[in-house]
UniProtKB/TrEMBL annotation:
The keyword tRNA processing does not apply. This is Thioredoxin domain-containing protein. Residues 38-175 form the Thioredoxin domain. One of its GO terms (molecular function) is protein disulfide isomerase activity. GO terms for biological process: protein folding. Gene3D superfamilies: Glutaredoxin. SUPFAM superfamilies: Thioredoxin-like. GO terms for cellular component: extracellular space; Golgi membrane. PROSITE patterns: THIOREDOXIN_1 (PS00194), THIOREDOXIN_2 (PS51352). Keywords: Signal. It comes from Salix udensis. Residues 1-23 form the signal peptide. It comes from the Eukaryota.
Length: 317
């Protein structure tokens, strides 16, 4: 298997986001999962996902995000109304088609003033408004929360009274450095008529997964040889800067590929083909082999659009 053959994986990557542009939008219950009140004014956009007893389990079960925040509030509560702008400032970072850091945290809310949500709010022992919970999305859909329970993967966010404090709390638990002023790297060629942010997020996940696996194949099959060094550089250039693939390759993968190119001589030095260096590479300890081109969370080991009919399999076979 040669290095150029690995580039065939790019065709899968191209298909993923191309097909997602034709995906139909979906609704969560009676309200859109992401409700934009104005496409022009960002201040009028609700980034947090509105949940109720009918869609709570399904949305949290199906999200590709690795973490979730659920805000329990009441629409009559003055403190909740004052807190909403703070919550939305943070949700802007993680939710929606223009999310700065997509796929990390799904930020949601539940209105406990609605009768339909009474049992749901009781299930989480909501004692005051607003009350914020943090945990793996799957745990929300399968468990409640009890204050007396010592060991629980669902945590109460005890210091999120402002947007700044909430981001700080998230950073502390993720070991991250997100900021309210973080901005997305805009792609001037990206079409704005893609209507379904949920479908986009799933396509992005599969693109990242395929990209990371392509690099794994190159490393694990020992395809980096002295005579294929130029091909590898061209492969990286295709990911990081090609105008033809700018709309398809995800931001994190593009940044990672660009970083490899900038540090290529350190990660893939000319003398790496010496016998002693080859032994290190064969043991999987080479610097390039340890570089996570799409971020430390990728590959995740599962697919969204490309999920196969059986566990641990990929579709499109």
């Amino acid at each position: 298997m040669s290095l150029p053959e690995a580039c065939v994986i790019l065709s899968v990557i191209v298909l993923l986001l191309t097909s997602s542009k034709e995906a139909a939008s979906f609704q969560s219950g009676s309200r859109s999962i992401l409700r934009a009140l104005s496409g022009e004014n960002k201040a009028l956009v609700d980034y947090a996902v509105d949940l109720n007893s009918t869609n709570f389990d399904s949305v949290l079960h199906d999200t590709p995000a690795t973490h979730a925040i659920v805000e329990f509030f009441a629409n009559w509560c003055p403190a909740c109304r004052n807190y909403k702008p703070h919550y939305e400032k943070v949700a802007r970072l993680f939710n929606g088609p223009d999310a700065v850091h997509p796929g990390i945290v799904l930020m949601t809310r539940v209105d406990c003033a609605l009768k339909i949500n009474n049992k749901l709010c009781d299930k989480f022992s909501v004692s005051h408004y607003p009350m914020l919970f943090w945990g793996p999305p799957s745990k929300f859909s399968s468990h409640g929360w009890e204050p007396e329970k010592e060991k629980s993967e669902i945590l109460v966010i005890d210091d999120g009274r402002t947007a700044e404090r909430l981001v700080s709390w998230i950073n502390k638990h993720l070991g991250s450095s997100y900021g309210l002023d973080d901005e997305k790297f805009e792609n001037e060629h990206l079409h704005s008529n893609i209507s379904d942010p949920g479908q986009i997020a799933r396509a992005v996940y599969d693109v990242e997964e395929a990209t990371a696996i392509a690099f794994e194949i190159i490393i694990e099959h020992k395809m980096i040889k002295q005579h294929t060094r130029v091909s590898l550089i061209k492969f990286l250039q295709l990911f990081s800067g090609s105008s033809s693939f700018k709309e398809i390759i995800c931001i994190r993968c593009r940044k990672g590929s660009a970083e490899v190119l900038v540090n290529f001589d350190d990660l893939c030095p000319p003398d790496m083909w010496s016998p002693d260096k080859q032994e290190v590479l064969s043991n999987g300890k080479g610097m390039l082999g340890n570089f996570q081109v799409c971020g430390k969370e990728v590959p995740r080991g599962y697919w969204m659009f490309c999920r196969g009919s059986k566990n641990d399999t990929r579709g499109f076979r």
